[in-house]
Structure formats: C-alpha cells, structure tokens
Prior knowledge:
Number of strands of chain A: 13
Largest sheet of chain A: 7 strands, mixed
Order of helices and strands of chain A: EEEHEHEHEHEEEHHHHHHHEEEEH
Number of domains of chain A: 2
Distance between the termini of chain A: 40 Å
Helix content of chain A: 25-40%
CATH class of the largest domain in chain A: Alpha Beta
Number of helices of chain A: 12
Strand content of chain A: 15-25%
Domain 3-dehydroquinate synthase N-terminal (chains A, B): 68-178
CATH architecture of the largest domain in chain A: 3-Layer(aba) Sandwich
Structural class of chain A: alpha/beta
GO molecular function (chains A, B): 3-dehydroquinate synthase activity; metal ion binding
Pfam family, one (chains A, B): DHQS_C
Oligomer: homodimer
Keywords (chains A, B): Cobalt, Lyase, Metal-binding, NAD
Shape of chain A: globular
Low-confidence stretches of chain A: none
Cofactor (chains A, B): Co(2+); NAD(+)
Amino acid sequence: MTTKQICFADRCFNFAFGEHILESIEDYIPRDEFDRYIVISDSGVPDSIVHHAAEYFGKLAPVHILRFQGGEEYKTLSTVTDLQEQAIALGANRRTAIVAVGGGLTGNVAGVAAGMMFRGIALIHVPTTFLAASDSVLSIKQAVNLTSGKNLVGFYYPPRFVFADTRILSESPPRQVKAGMCELVKNMLILENDNLEFTEDDLNSTNVYSPKQLETFINFCISAKMSVLSEDIYEKKKGLIFEYGHTIGHAIELAEQGGITHGEAIAVGMIYAAKIANRMNLLSEHDVSAHYWLLNKIGALQDIPLKSDPDSIFHYLNHDNKRGYLKLDEDNLGMILLNGVGKPAVYNQSLLTPVRKTLIKEVIREGL
Amino acid sequence: MTTKQICFADRCFNFAFGEHILESIEDYIPRDEFDRYIVISDSGVPDSIVHHAAEYFGKLAPVHILRFQGGEEYKTLSTVTDLQEQAIALGANRRTAIVAVGGGLTGNVAGVAAGMMFRGIALIHVPTTFLAASDSVLSIKQAVNLTSGKNLVGFYYPPRFVFADTRILSESPPRQVKAGMCELVKNMLILENDNLEFTEDDLNSTNVYSPKQLETFINFCISAKMSVLSEDIYEKKKGLIFEYGHTIGHAIELAEQGGITHGEAIAVGMIYAAKIANRMNLLSEHDVSAHYWLLNKIGALQDIPLKSDPDSIFHYLNHDNKRGYLKLDEDNLGMILLNGVGKPAVYNQSLLTPVRKTLIKEVIREGL
C-alpha cells in the first residue's frame, strides 16, 4: 500500500492505493469526520463493487447508495439535481461526504454534486477503473455536458480523499486497463521521468497486471502529473502538455463514434503528432519510433487501421475547438508537439505550436 | 459617481455606482475584453431597464438578452441549464461575459450560470434594486434552490465588475428600497461606523431618496460589509454578524408566507434579538431603543403586528437550520446577539450565543 499527499496549490488530500485498501479507510478518516456517506455510482459500475465499497464506509457512519443511469447523455445538471434531491432526502448535510465509486463519469457527476451541495461538501473518490485511478482523479476539473457539447459546465473542486483498490482494478476488463495504459505511455513520452520504478519490459499487450504492478503504475502517474499540475491547477499553462495526442486523437474518437476507447484514440493521436513533429524537423526518427514501440508494447496500435476515412477525421478536427488547441487562422492549428521524448516543443512561450492544416491532412492520409 | 475596488481575499473587482453610471462603462471595460455580452434578467425586471442596460453593453460588443421566469420556484439548476444552452447557441465562449441585470434572484441565477460555463466565465452585476446594490452583490455566495430548500446548491464566485445606476434605483418602488434600508440599518447597528457620511436625519419613512443619497448609502454599505468580508469570504466566521436578526427574522418571513419582504422580516428579527439580549443582560434598554428608533425612521416597523401567530413563527424557528444559527441541544438555539450598538456578543470565540428556547418563545409572544 502507498499513501501520497497530493496538493493542487494549497488544497491537499491523501491518495491511498494498494490491494484491499478499502479495508484500511479507518486509518485515514477519523470516525467522527462525517456524519454519513452517500455513495454515488453510475449504472455501469458492477453492483458487487459498489456494495463492497459501501460496506467499508458503513463501518464509520451510516451509508446510502444512489445509482444513476450511465452514458454521456445522462451526464447533465439534471442528473446532478436528482442526486442532490435524493441525498438531501436521505439526510445529507454539511457534515456528509459524497463517495464517488466508479470511473471518470461517476467521478465528474458526483464531483459536481458534492461541489455544489451547501456550496461544497466533502468528496471522496473510489476510482474503479485504472484510467480513473491514474488519470481522472489527478485533476480537479469537474464538469457535465450540455446538449451543445461535452464538459461545457463545471468548476474546479478537489476531493478530500482518494482510495484506489488495485485488486478491483486488476480484475477489471483488459481493454479498460489499456485505456489507462495509453495515458501512462503518454506520461512516459512527454516528461523526463527519472528513477522509473518499472521498465518497459513490465508493459504487456494483454493488459493483465497484478495489483502490485498497477500500484507501481499509479505511483508513476501521480509523480508525473503532479510534477506539473500542483502548480498549474487549472491545466491551462504547463498542464496543457497532458493534452498531447488529444488534438487529432479527439477528432478520431468522434469520427469512430464509440468504436474505440478514448485511450486508444489518444494513442493514435500521439503517433500522428510525432509524425507531424518529425516532418517539421522538431522530432527525430528515433523518437517517432519510441512512440510506436511503447504503444505496441501495450497493444494500443492493434486493431488499427481505423474504420473512419481521413476526411471525416479532418472534419471533426476542424470543427471541435474544445480540446487543447487553438485556432490560429484559417491555415493553421495549434498543436502540442515534442522536440524529443520528455521535451515539449515551446513556441512563443506556449506549448501550442502552429501547424499547417495541409500537413495535418497529409499525415492523416498516410495513416499509421 | 464613485468607484471602489472590492476584494474578497485576492479576488478583486471594481464596483462603480452613481447616476447614469451605465453611460460610463467604456471607461471601465476595455473594448476587446469580451467578445460578446449575454444579458440575463428574470421576468420581474422591467423591460425598459433591461433594454437600457443592454444598449450600453452593445456599444462595446454584440449583446444578447435572455429572460427567465422569476420566482423562487424557478430559481433552479434547470433554469440555469436552459440559460446556458441558449447562451452557447448564441455563440457564448470563454471570452463572453454574462451580465446579470436585476435583483438578488437574477444575480444568483446568472452567477451560477456564469460560474459553471467553461468552468467559469466573466460575470458582471448590474443590480437594479437597492437591496441587490447594497447587499447581495457584496457577497460572492451564489446559489439556487432544491425542492427541499432554498439556496441549497451553489458555490462562491466573484463578479468581474459591478455597475449600479442610482437613477434606476431611485425610481424603483419605495417598498423595494425599504428592503435594502433594513439591511443598511442592520449595518449601522452591528458595526462601529466611524466617519459616517450621512446622519440619522437623512433617513426617512417614505423610502424615496435621490440618486445622490443612495450613492452615499451604497458607499456606506460597501465599507461596512467589506470591513468584515474581505477577510472572511465564505461568511462563516466574523461574517456571521451579517446574519443578525435573521434567526427569528427568517422564521417570520416563512410564517408570513410572502406577506412581508425579507428586509422587513429582518427588521422585526433584530428587534426580537435586541429584546432577548436585553433579557440576558447583554444589551442595555438604551440600545434596544436605538433599534426601535432607527427602524421606525425608515418605516420598517409600520404595518406590524404580523398576521402569523407566535406558535407558527416558533415552528419555523425550530425546523429551519439553514440560517446563521446552530442547534446546540434540545433547549437552546445559537443566536447572533449584541453587547451594545456596534459590539457583537462573543461566546466561546464564536458569534453564536446559546439562547434558551423558552426565552425566545416568551419574547415572541410578547410581540414588538
């Protein structure tokens, strides 16, 4: 088991992770800290996991479980309001904690709910996917969707505690684990990581890992993300680096219409970003190869080529302006590029480098 | 015209007020600061005022007007979502400003909407009631209602600018002005106010004032409130003093079921608080008289006695736990009391003094 203190500026909390960590929550939360716990989970989280988590919180104070319909179309303020009304009816007050048991979707909906009740009550994350444990909970961005777009409404709100049970994560579907591993590889590519506690040989394409291995991976992701985000809590300056691969990756995710996971789309997006940087003489062939090699290691480039055609990808690229890139003019897009592995390219003191759209189109046409 | 810089901790903004101040907004807002303005107003705000305000913002950038149904039952996240969807459809983005033209209701709904769009875009308050200009906008608490209670969901979000046109305020209904004057008298009673720019003779019971007089009153309320709130931005410590009169006042407001304004209810609540403090040997007869005298000056104790019976008031007092008091045990309530005019009573380092419920009941039974 590992415990790390995470600080977003002056807002700090403990993140405890390891096998069966939930058995130890009494060591972290004083018995009289909260008067009751409201567990919130979307319908995609297995019942057994929700009840398992609730059981341990129930040893500290009364616990209630609220479920909501999963899926992006239900990630709305309307769902948040329903959960808040139910929580109040169950007796929630300023001394109550909201416990988000689930992946990123549950974390965001519960995060918005907790951040607004009585103008902010305690939020506890129990991530049940490796992606949530190693990426989502390492951000205080909370948001829900409008019909006009994803994550358009929200705010910044930190949790009070995070507990990640690596046994639960190790038993989750391999493709879910792979989604998180894609972001882990991103962290390996964008930052200079000294004293790595694992080697590339520890990665595998089956995406089946032991709880102990996942603990090591989470530990790495915490160090990587917090080395940047502890001082850029709004993720608007140096934190933009975590949007690497997202410009084209997000367009691919949209074009594939649910056919691939966010992580897989980002993996492909990173390959394209590397190829583009190479054409612009920013990145060496050797470093482009490092992208292929690492992503193949985790099986992220299997089952590619994509179904969607380059024009469709380019359409979304041109019309979505919500990710980490800037529309500069008609001919260019701002993209996050690398000068080398661990070396973000800087242009005009910003991580966004202008890239000609014709070059982007050309590289997408060529494929992987 | 007066301009004051208001700071809630390190979050500062300019508050400009005076006759026809809207004509001068170009002196405060750089022309390229916002790409468009979305004016939000509830249906209770006169059309002429909304269009008048929109006209001046329209000189700086494109402006759109969104109206929503007024009334507490529509002060919800559902209304907020509707406004956000409409704003996005009109082209709102991170560089857009939301302009709240109205009283406290509009300020809160627009405040919650602005605070969440793209995780927070600029909010500009144009208060059109004296209460909003002298009280509501001097708080960064934003909230909307749940069916289970008022102001149960929200957060803290400061405006970027406040513009109060004292001409508009001077032409508003006298009873609306009186609501604000009750809070002004509260500020006179709870704080030591040196160098007051007006005398008690400047108060009148018709509640008709010139723009210049209202400017002086707003200036006083800013000094009074910010002397405390600039360091207690969450209004949970020294800021609790502004809840003076609210314990019993809020119960009276509920018992009267809309028959009296919030300000009038607080006026009566302050009288009861003074009488209770006197019975507890905390406050002199002379200082109790000061309460009656000042509140009579502004006509706040006219049309009293109340319609509701003492038992009904006591019922709400016992069941509402959302105002600035603490339930201590079965026999006591925590109330904000005074030791003298300008001298809050302190009990155990807190502004909440335990008061026997039997004493509260007795004083309410006796009436004013």
